[in-house]
Amino acid sequence: MSNSATTVPKHIGIIMDGNRRWAREHGVSVAEGHKQGYLTLKHIAKAGLKRGIKYLTAYAFSTENWQRDRQEVKDLMKLMTWALKHEIEELNKEGIRLRVVGSKLKFGAATARAIMHAEELTKNNKRATLLLCLDYGGQDEIVRAVKRIASEGVPAEEITAELITKHLDASDVPFPDMIIRTSGEERLSGFMMWESVYSELAFVQKTWPDFDEQALDDVLADYANRQRRFGK
Prior knowledge:
The protein is α/β, with parallel strands linked by helices. The protein has eight helices and six strands, in the order βααβααβαβααββα. It has a six-stranded parallel β-sheet, sandwiched between helices.
């Protein structure tokens, strides 16, 4: 696989699917499955950085995920809050900026504080950016962007695709070049609906906790062999 700047995607998005299936297959709790999924994200983020990927967006918790079992949601919130509090110093030392995208309206005070601290601490880092989609849905993001435009009093005839893009949650981040979904599912499930307009898609059979560096390299090799036309 070539690692030239022309063949390595600048931005990859990952739909981290299969934590619960992995837990069932290994006879452990769902909470343990999510913990392994988190460890995989940490490992793959570092591997991506070594391969020249500048932006990585992880679909960690959707707006629909609030409907899951109450204990599972509670465990997920505890894991995410712990990670934001205890891992942020390592990210900062690595020069990685952390951004959290999503509505953030339903988080408890502890999680909200952890997000604010993590984003503030790393906001000036330039080496790479890790985006976490928390309380996120693609339709919800577009609705919130349009509401921001409406609140500014922009006339309808002046609303353009470029203007909507500027009002998205991470308007300073380039659209993903490639989106990976694990666990054999072949749909985007509301992930970056606006931003994925020309993203290359890769569907991997492995569950997310089993996704490793070889799987990442396989996807990157496939990407390097694709010809992106952007509708031309």
